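Hello,

I think I submitted the adenosine monophosphate job twice by accident. Can you confirm which output corresponds to this input? Input:
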Amino acid sequence: MHIFKTKKELQKFLLSFTKEEKVGFVPTMGALHEGHLSIVEQSKKQCDITICSIFVNPTQFNNASDLDNYPNTLKADLEKLEQLACDIVYTPTIADLYKNGEKAKEFDFGTLTIGMEGEFRPGHFNGMATIVEKFFNIINPTKAFFGQKDLQQLQIVKALAKQMESDIQIIGIPTIREESGLAKSSRNELLSTSEKQEATLVYKCLKYCKNNQELAIPTLEKYIQEQFKNNTHFKLEYIDFVSLNTLLPITKWEAKNQNAICIAAYIEGVRLIDNIIL
Ligand code: AMP
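Support: Only one job matched these inputs. Its output is below.
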């Protein structure tokens, strides 16, 4: 496994590959868990060379303490990637990617950024798209892999690739869950065993909606809000029923489009997000 700390070294190494070799790219912020690793495995299956980046991108954090507290488990991450025979790991410093004082670029993703994370984490998607665009320009992969766990991010990255007029294929990878249904997340490590058990409420609610699609959306919404109100440890930030292509809210299921339900909630101060595509 080759580890590069600078884009210069990485790009020099990439020159040794032919145009026919498919390059798969998996961006992460480290603290790798089985969700990340399943994405690396998919890239290994679909491509000849897999590059995983580990970089905690400062411009996508709208909260300084969230950035300061972001876990750093680089040694363990590298061991996990080595076990999967990941070909290349790119672990740049901030200075390798941003000029001194450089801020996030302003993007226009239309309706995709209006609601949900776009509403509750202002600036987050400009920061995310800024770094993904930089990575795409440095690596120019054949395919880039993103988790459906961050559904809004996945849709925005697809829009970004179009805006860049690039041929990079954006591949969405299904969410990996604990046996309990809780979506794997680095933030789960901040929860006690009993909190983790309670956190399964998020996925239970999503599955309830999926299994009761004959009910009207406002009825389902009210039911979910009640479930969260009855749980004193939880604070529901949003539950949104949306059309997958636009991410605009829907009040009736759209038969001709895919629909999705997205939830963000705090359990004892830890923010969890999850979704289900119908
Ligand atoms: P992060 O390190 O949080 O930026 O995540 C890196 C990538 O892993 C993103 O594309 C996420 O959507 C994806 N990811 C995070 N959690 C999961 C999960 N439980 N299952 C599948 N992919 C995930």
